[in-house]
Amino acid sequence: MRILNNLQEVHRYIQQQGSLKGCLADTGFLYALSYCDDRFFDKANDVLDLLSEKQIAIFTNVVSRMEFVDLIFRKQITGGAIHIYEELLPKEKNKHFYNFVKSIRDQESRGRKINNSFKVGEYHIKKLREEILQYYGDKSWQDFCRQFVGNMLVNEWLILEKEFGLNYMEALEGSNHEQLNLPLYWLDVVQLMGEQGFRAPDAMIVNFFSKSKFDLLITSDQDFKKFFSTTEKELNSKAVYILK
């Protein structure tokens, strides 16, 4: 397994291989392609341009698709919270709510300064829902979602998928697939989690790539470097480009 360190090495690898059966993209790469405040935005889009020029298809699995939509959702919720902050006047009765949305605005602003794209997490979303319902009343959370997420989530997700030319692959447990060299088993994913300390989505990407016919994986996850640097010899023709 080869670790590629820059775009020039990716280009050279593609030339050496002659033609690639496909490229596997993880969630970090897809998100970096989508938002200009991500620190890998420029590098990710340079890779996309190269893949498009070489007519190399981009694939990902169903879990990465779910994670990607969730990141878009969280980014839109973040924008909605900032919008509330900008319209909310600090008053004694809403002091706690005001400080909460202000903290989201502040984290987003700090992130922009260091090219670290901020999006709210599960805690923020639950807390924001609680604060909105308490301050604005019944159905206010649904109103908030309709205004700042709603159809925009569907539209943005579909536009990005089309723009990137994404292909999704799903294989049943133990079944054969034209894009796989070996069938996928959940037990292998669990073993990777236990032995390597990967979270389930990361273990699924590693297992998927290792058993697929795809030649190239593009990721922003530095944890993959050590694993793929010491992986089995039968994967020597494959390569991983880790954005950094």
Count of beta strands? 6
The largest sheet has its strands arranged as 1-6-5-2-3-4
What's the order of the H and E elements?
A: EHEHHEHHHHHEHHEHE
Main beta sheet: 6 strands, parallel
**Termini separation (Å)?**
18 Å
**Which radius of gyration do the C-alpha atoms yield?**
21 Å
Count of DSSP-assigned helices:
11
| Global shape | elongated
Strand content: 5-15%
Low-confidence stretches: none
Helix content: 55-70%
Write a structural description:
This protein is of the alpha/beta class. Helix content is 59%, strand content 9%. It has eleven helices and six strands. It has helices at residues 7-17, 27-34, 41-53, 62-87, 95-113, 122-136, 140-148, 150-164, 186-196, 200-211, 224-229, and strands at residues 2-4, 23-25, 58-61, 166-169, 216-219, 239-242. A six-stranded parallel β-sheet has the order 1-6-5-2-3-4, sandwiched between helices. The model has no long low-confidence stretch (mean pLDDT 91).
Chain-wise SSE layout:
Elements: E1 2-4, H1 7-17, E2 23-25, H2 27-34, H3 41-53, E3 58-61, H4 62-87, H5 95-113, H6 122-136, H7 140-148, H8 150-164, E4 166-169, H9 186-196, H10 200-211, E5 216-219, H11 224-229, E6 239-242
Parallel strand pairs: 1-6, 2-3, 2-5, 3-4, 5-6
Helix pairs in contact: 2-3, 2-4, 4-5, 4-7, 5-6, 9-10
Give a quick set of tags describing it.
244 residues, elongated, alpha/beta, 59% helix
What is the gist of this entry?
The protein is α/β, with parallel strands linked by helices and 244 residues long. It has helices spanning 7-17, 27-34, 41-53, 62-87, 95-113, 122-136, 140-148, 150-164, 186-196, 200-211, 224-229, and strands at residues 2-4, 23-25, 58-61, 166-169, 216-219, 239-242.
